[in-house]
Amino acid sequence: MVLGIDLGGTKIAAQIFNDHWQIQHSKRIATPRHYRGLTAALTDLVRWAETATGAVLPVGIGSAGLINPADGLALAANLPIAGNPFPAHISEAVGRPVTCLNDSRALTLSEAVLGAGQGCRTVLGLVLGTGVGGGIAIDGRLLEGPSQTGGEFGHVSASAALVAQYGLPLVPCGCGRTGCVETLISGAGLSRIGAVTMGQVLDAPAIAARRGVDPAAQAAWDIWCALVADLVRGLILTVDPDCIVLGGGLSQILGIATDLRAAVTTAQFSGFPVPPIYLAQGGDISGARGAAYAAVMAQR
Ligand SMILES: [Zn+2]
User: Fold this and answer.
1) Quick check: pTM over 0.70?
2) Which of 79, 144, 155, 180 has the smallest number of CB atoms closer than 10 Å to its CB?
3) What is the domain count for the chain?
4) 154 C-alpha to center of ligand 1: Å?
């Protein structure tokens, strides 16, 4: 058995999986606002898992943000772990090594091994939501490197050609740069595009719902798809994945996989194949499952 924890900005979801990756026990709590409370809550969840199973389990935590391998400190916008050596502290509190990884990487791993990407050698995970992230898994393992920033696709620059063509705004990103593609393809990004084509600010689901009936909403959606497709095109040119798995809140939009596949086909070299685009199968447990899987792999 193994404990996977999905650490989000508003809630923490803990799942205990058995050897067949079925959920044995689950627990959800609100995310504490302060660092000390957060590490205490996570430690309590590990103790809960030990009590529930009577075993010392491997522990994996998937969370937003990054751990800088240079100093071990966390960088995160919506979690009170920023500036703290989170993995070191939580391992110390629990009393054994805890596997920490980015939540988009966790989803990618989960989907590659146990979800929509099963059977594909190279799986590109793309998480489209409040932020934009992802990961690459090859042969059931995450592609990881010395900076630990691989998969931060949201902070690739948006296509200058598309920004100019559609008169899109270049706005500062949370990372400190200006013009990151996340500022145009996150949920807030689709709203920004909608403001240009529709002259009013609507949230992403409202714009998606008006496609087909409102040409200006359809135009916003088409531009959004073109921007995502341009990002995907760059990733195809780099790693040539066998499939793409979509996660995040925006992946719930009806028809998104079909529309993105069409946009990627347009962006790809004429006549060349494009990978299939699937929706993540793991639902809201995929992050915890990926973190749990990473924890099991770390023990091997
Ligand atoms: Zn950025």
Assistant:
1) yes
2) 144
3) 2
4) 6
